[in-house]
Design goal:
Number of domains: 4
CATH topology of the largest domain: Beta-Lactamase
Number of helices: 10
Distance between the termini: 54 Å
Strand order of the largest sheet: 2-1-5-4-3
Order of helices and strands: HHEEEEEHHHHEHEEHEEHHEE
Helix content: 40-55%
Bound molecules: adenosine-5'-diphosphate
Largest sheet: 5 strands, antiparallel
CATH architecture of the largest domain: 2-Layer Sandwich
Oligomer: single chain
Length: 454
């Protein structure tokens, strides 16, 4: 069975109630003790006073007839009065009117050394039983000395446990009050959280353009609401991007599929007029294109998902040199490579990044490409510069978006999927680096920065 309340509100209320009950119980126990002591002392003092007065009278021989109760002994009404008996040789020889004709109050017989004795004596049964404060005084040290018994009923508050009942009720009421206040305060504090939760539940079920209510101020709940809204902003943008990407990808895939279909339909409808070799070549071209788009899409989806297990230390200058060697080029390729600048990364991905930059540079260059590797603060810097038409500043971010082509006819015909730069930037970012287009007097300059390995 689960005993812990589920809601923060119930939990806080329970904790506050329990703590309050513990604290109030401790205070109530203290009060109980203090009140009991004070009342007991009062009763004892009053009883002693009467006993002493009568004892003095017996000693001085001035006691004659019934003992007159003290005037001051009427605090508790007739019940609260001190009854006194003077006992000599086991017989009551004088007493207050209420105690006459009754057997001695007690068998207590003080010794010569300790002439005054007090005790609480209970005769009844149960909590409501009769309890009396008894003070016994041996009037003299003589062997046949008279003994004065003074008895006063204990206040019912002490005997019946009424005091504890009252204190218990007070503890329960105060703890209940604290629990109620906590319930209200926590409820009020958490109300915005509940509103945020309800709104978030609705947003995730309906549309991402809605936002959670932001309470004013700078407290934790206001910050939570702001963070939730920022997350929703990012989520909305990501979903929009994803949608755009899916639609762009379908569009890109549709073109070669349509070509393939047209080709096949033509061949099946007019088998005799079809040049089989041409049809197959065209179909293969479309299939190649489909394949390269799908391969690029898969790569894009996988970048950054492999963790750091596949990372190795790579000398950027060596990597660039081996890639340049591998690619036969009819252009002038100038290199300025500083060796010894190592980065941590996935070799296959960094090769792919460099390939994409070199492909584009060769495609757009008029006659020369320059590759440079150097150090830039805590980073290794690799630039690929060509002397082609360059990229206008307004398009320098756009070209990194998926399927962006500034000159679609030219790049498509050259087999570009429109994903090359998007892949390159994703790889750079997955390696905690950056890829940007920098200003250059002629042509385009792509600059890659990767953190140097420690
Ligand atoms: P593509 O497969 O079309 O080459 P990319 O993502 O590699 O796709 O490039 C996107 C677009 O950026 C290209 O279509 C082209 O218009 C522009 N671009 C890329 N590199 C260069 C460059 N070196 N010079 C001029 N334009 C470039």
């Amino acid at each position: 069975m689960r005993l812990r309340p589920r809601s923060i509100r119930s939990r806080d209320t329970l904790i506050a109630a329990v703590l309050a009950a513990l604290a109030f119980t401790a205070v109530a126990a203290g009060i109980d003790l203090a009140v009991r002591n004070a009342m007991r002392n009062d009763v004892l003092e009053e009883t002693q006073r009467s006993a002493r007065r009568v004892s003095a009278a017996v000693r001085e021989g001035t006691l004659a007839g019934p003992v007159i109760p003290d005037d001051s002994e009427d605090a508790g009404g007739s019940d609260g009065r001190v009854q006194v008996q003077v006992v000599r040789r086991g017989r009551v020889v004088a007493a207050t009117p209420g105690a006459l004709g009754r057997p001695p109050f007690s068998r207590l017989w003080p010794s010569r050394d300790e002439r005054i004795v007090d005790a609480i004596q209970c005769t009844g049964h149960g909590p409501g039983g009769d309890c009396t404060m008894l003070v016994v005084i041996r009037t003299t040290t003589a062997p046949d000395s008279a003994v004065v018994y003074a008895a006063r009923p204990m206040p019912s508050l002490l005997v019946t446990g009424l005091l504890e009942v009252l204190l218990g009720v007070a503890v329960l009421s105060l703890s209940g009050l604290i629990a109620w206040v906590t319930w209200r305060v926590v409820g009020r504090t958490l109300r915005p959280v509940e509103e945020i939760r309800a709104q978030l539940a609705e947003i995730s079920a309906t549309d991402l353009s809605r936002r959670v209510p932001e309470p004013g101020g700078e407290d934790e709940i206001a910050q939570l609401a702001r963070t939730a809204n920022e997350t929703l902003d990012r989520l909305e943008r990501a979903v929009a991007r994803q949608r755009q990407f899916a639609s762009d990808a379908s569009h890109e895939l549709r073109t070669p599929i349509a070509g393939l279909r047209a080709n096949l339909e033509d061949a099946s409808m007019h088998p005799d007029d079809t040049d089989l070799e041409m049809a197959i070549t065209s179909a293969l071209r479309d299939t190649d294109r489909l394949e390269s788009i799908v391969t690029d899409l898969l790569l894009l989806a996988r970048i950054g998902t492999g963790g750091s297990a596949a990372h190795e230390t790579i000398d950027l200058a060596e990597l660039a040199a081996s890639e340049i060697r591998r690619r036969p080029s009819c252009l002038r390729v100038r290199t300025r490579l500083t060796e010894g600048l190592t980065v941590r990364g996935v070799r296959m991905q960094l090769v792919r990044l460099l390939d994409n930059l070199l492909d584009n540079a060769e495609r757009y260059a008029d006659g020369a490409v320059e590759i440079e590797v150097c150090r830039a603060g805590p980073n290794a810097r690799l630039t690929v510069t060509d002397d082609g038409p360059g990229i206008p500043p307004a398009d320098r971010e756009r070209v990194f978006e998926r399927f962006t082509r500034l000159d679609s006819a030219r790049s498509r015909s050259a087999g570009g999927t429109g994903l090359g730069l998007a892949i390159a930037r994703e790889i750079a970012q997955a390696h905690s680096g950056s890829l940007v287009i920098e200003d250059h007097p002629k042509g385009a300059r792509f600059a890659l920065h990767l953190p140097l390995s420690p």
